[in-house]
Amino acid sequence: MGFAASVVTIFPEMFPGALGQSLTGKALERGDWSLETVNPRSFTQDRHQSVDDTPFGGGAGMVMRPDVIAAALDAAAPTGDPRPKIFLTPRGRRFVQADARRLADGPGVVLLCGRYEGIDQRVVESRGLDEVSIGDFVLSGGELAAFLLLDSVVRLLPGVLGSASSLAEESFEDGLLEYPHYTRPAVWEGRPVPEILLSGHHARIREWRREQAKAITAARRPDLIGAKNVELHPEGH
Fold first, then answer.
1. Averaged pLDDT for residues 133-145
2. Facing residues of 52 across strands?
């Protein structure tokens, strides 16, 4: 059985979307991974299929109801399901490459896509959700975040990308941003390829690339220097 992804969303028609194209789409067709959606509206009790209500204590916006969201999560991940359950939210822990690697090594993931002002906190606590953010910005909902997270994980599954060495040299795999790349022609618009890359000295090329990666990381992401990626909870709830 391949990597199994379940997405709880009030917009199931958005999936697989971009995930059904290119490498992730081909892997989906091969069965390297599976994707299902669960719509919380299927678990509502009123004729309007309401999934949200006004917040206790007042304030702007609406909050997704705990009874509806919990029922949808329980349908996506019944008792005993070993997959981690992740709530995609701007207030969550930042998702990093180490998290993608860990998830790719596991049985799959259950993603909850929030909408409105978010979900009732009691669902986070009762269902042991890991709160995860893909960046320091706010989206209209968690669906686009789910696309990004799943793409980052699926491409790491065996056989999806094709080249294990390519994965090993990517940004963040060793805590550094990736070095610059060049291809033919050797001179373009008066700009030559760095001479070292034409030398054939593979050891020197590796060292040059390493130094380039260090310099780029120091200039653009100094926070990565000497830092360790923070992983999601290993127990997976």
1. 96
2. 64
